[in-house]
Structure formats: C-alpha cells, structure tokens
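Quick log. Single chain, no ligands specified.
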Amino acid sequence: MGIFQNNLLAGAAAAASAGGGGFYSHQIAQSARFDRASQSYLTQDFGTLTAAKWTVSLWFKRAQTGYAFSTLIGRTDGNAQLYFSDADALINDSKYTNTVDGLYRDAGGWTNLVYNQKSVNTAAAYVNGVERSVTVSGSGSFFIPWHTTSTIGNMSGTGDTRFFDGYMAEVVGVYNQDLDNTDFGEFKNGVWIPIEPNVTFGSNDYYLKFENASDLGNDSSGNNNDFTANNMGTDHQVLDSPTFGS
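-> predicted structure:
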C-alpha cells in the first residue's frame, strides 16, 4: 500500500502552471472548516432509506493526520462511516469494511474523492480522478446506508465522537444512483479539476457549496435537504478551496 500523493497543485500556483487564471471552467469559491477541537459537524435526517447504492463526491484537505476515526461522512446512530484510520487509510465501514487502496497523509493540498457504493459488497473509488482498488472484508447480508441519517465531519451517536479536522468543499451526496468520477471532474493538462456536477438530483440528494457563511448546511440540489450546522459559526466558511487558495 503506497502513500497517496496529491496530483492537484494548490490554488493560484495550479492555475499559473497549468494554464492561467481561466484554467478552471467551474469555480469553487469557498470551503467549510471542520474543527475537531470545537467538535464541528453537519447533520441531516433523510428518514428511512434502504437501498445499498449511493455515490458521494467531495473535496477535502486534512489539517491533522494520524488519529483514529477522522470521519468524512457518517450516521447519527453511529453504525456506519466513511473515515480515515489512525494509519491514514480511507475506509467505508458498516458490516462490510471497504478499504480504499493507499494512505492519505497529505495535509497541504486538496483531494477529490468520488466513492460509489454499488451494492452491499461492491464499491468503486476515485481519488483525484484515478480509480483506486477497494478491498472488501466482512460478511453477512446486513448493510446500513449512512445516507439515511447523515453526519458530515463526524459520526455521532452511541457515545461516538469521531470528528474530522480540516476542510471540505462541494460535497455532493446522491442516493440510489451509480455515478462516475467524470460526473464531477475532468483532467486538464494532467491536473484533476472540478466541473459542474453532472447529476440529476433526486429527492434524497444534496449538494453543499458552503456559499452562505450564516447557513453552511444550505442544500443547493433544489430539494431543500438542508443540514444543521453544529458548532460552526460564520468563521467556519473560508476562501481556501480547490480552485482558489487563500
């Protein structure tokens, strides 16, 4: 297992080296800061959903590595999560454990993850546009989609406090659809960059842009699936993003 090296240069340096200020066709103007010390996270309850198929795309930049259960997305009942382990492996865990190839120790650059859970024991993962193998372990027919009662930046419930420390931008969650990395990004001059999501949003989907500092959980999918911000003030919106470095 190798250490993943980010192939997206940061901010203005990327635009300058790869083609100038007009390099990005789709701009991401801001991100949200998730602060482990402040225990900041977002929550939304989608009700009872049962399909074992979903896709998520998000950009992340870690501020702290090497600690257990740094959760990108989880469930409020604590039974499933997409997280980094203390060894910096990327794992989606319910009854089945899906481990994405590589170690993710870059704390200085933005990384795009597109993760597609296709069935109870089949998943595809793309990191900055490159497909990574997913190793599945565990057994049984039980599967909990964390999309049902989602938390972003933490897995809360049953006494768990597993907070992400870093930044996230353009978080897209799509229920019961198989989507590819090319629905969210493209290669340009060898650099993986974001595009306007090519998604037909259903009633249980969400698109978080973090564009309103006073309402960081606002859903831009058209479904009003707004998330509730916990311990996240207006100062948790920052200008640092995959297409703009502050």
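The domain at 11-238 is CATH 2.60.120.200 (Jelly Rolls).
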